[in-house]
Design brief:
Blueprint: H1 3-13, E1 16-20, H2 30-41, E2 48-51, H3 56-66, E3 73-76, E4 79-82, H4 84-93, H5 95-105
Parallel strand pairs: 1-2
Antiparallel strand pairs: 1-3, 3-4
């Protein structure tokens, strides 16, 4: 499987996917930690996370896949949402909570 296929498989098989540095329990950067906290505040206790520090191909591949230069990166039901700054803005406006609630209804 190519790196792109692996990334797509994770996104297809999991409703909430966070590509991050570290894990949800042990984030390895402040931005990843903030992303996990935002998801928890929206009721997502156990997001599917991929630690990009463990796989350089995934770390580079996700940036190319999304055409987004930074990590973390959030996907909801296959839709690329963005990084920690966008997540925080969407959380503050209520939009992220709405998207997550809509996922739970389906």
């Amino acid at each position: 499987m190519s790196t792109k296929e692996i990334i797509q498989k994770h996104i297809d098989e999991n409703p909430v996917v966070l590509f991050m540095k570290g894990t949800a329990n042990f984030p390895q950067c402040g931005f990843s930690g903030m992303a996990v906290e935002v998801l928890r505040r929206c009721g997502v206790e156990k997001p599917f996370t991929i630690n990009v520090l463990e796989d350089q191909e995934i770390r580079q591949g996700i940036k190319e896949f999304s055409n987004w230069p930074t990590i973390p990166q959030l996907y909801l039901k296959g839709e690329f949402i963005g990084g920690s700054d966008i997540m925080r803005e969407m959380y503050n406006s209520g939009e992220l909570q709405q998207k997550i609630d809509a996922m739970a209804e389906n």
